[in-house]
Amino acid sequence: MSSDRRVPNRGAIELRVEYKRLNTFFADYTRNISKGGTFIRTDRPLDVDTEFVFALAVPSLEEPLRLLGKVRWRRTAEESTEDAEAGMGIEFVWRDDEERRATERTVEKLMAAELGGSLTAKLLGKP
Length: 127
Hints:
The chain is an alpha+beta fold. The protein has one domain (11-123): Thrombin, subunit H (Beta Barrel). The chain is 20% helix and 40% strand. The protein has 2 helices and 6 strands; from the N terminus they run ββββββαα. A 6-stranded antiparallel beta barrel has the order 1-2-3-6-5-4. Helix 1 crosses helix 2. The radius of gyration is 14 Å and the shape is globular.
């Protein structure tokens, strides 16, 4: 496991993330996403183990991609550094295998569109 807690390789893509916390609506950003999760850059990270629905605004999709996620780790603004932004590491939570496969296909397409096919294949460990 790398020092930044990620297991699957991630692609560098900046997407707007929207979610609610109690009765407050938040709009933050993610710059990296993998088939298993994402990092949401925010000065207001949710507590570890919090499950929540969030929407990724993807330019190539008509509707935002709505996903269920669980906070696996967090870094507050006070804990952040120049090399480690404040935010939270999110693990995707799927209701069933079909939802997982559909999300993985979407993430692979996003990575391929942003990074190109060969780099995406390399990041995903595909021949």
